[in-house]
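Example record

The entry below shows one chain as it appears in the dataset: sequence first, then structure tokens.
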Amino acid sequence: MASAKTGMWTAILGALIILIDGLLVLANKTFYGWHYGSASVVGWTEIILSLIMMGLAFYYKKSKSAIGWTIAILALITMPFDGGFWTIGAWIALIGGAIIATGSE
């Protein structure tokens, strides 16, 4: 079984990809596919949720299950805002959250 620390780094990697996507959406003022809202809404939603995921990931030792599943739920929330290739960040963060929640210490 993977360790919770591995899950933390996996979740942070996924959140970084989501953050990059949000910044690119704001910079280019365009996004791929159908989304909820304008480019500004999509970009800022991705940025805010990814920063929350990264912040929570560092506290994985406090309550692994609560932190891990919260990160997984936030990753699921970002999926409708991601498009095309960038959805991979949400999947990686989802896997990282699950590893944190179920991982050993």
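Notes for this example: The chain has a mean pLDDT of 89. The longest helix spans residues 4-28.
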